[in-house]
Amino acid sequence: MGGHAPTRPGVPARLSGLLGRAMAQGPPRHQDEEFIYIVVDAAATHMYAPGVRQHIKAALAAGATPQEIMEVLECTATLSIHAMNVGVPVLTEVLAERGIRTDAAPLNEYQERLKAEFTQKRGYWNPTWDEMLELDPELFDAYTAFSSHPWTHGTLSPKVREFIYMAFDTSATHLYKVGLKLHIENALGYGATIGEVLEVMEVASVIGIHSVAMGAPILLEEIAALAGDD
Question: DSSP secondary-structure letter at 100?
Answer without folding.
Answer: S
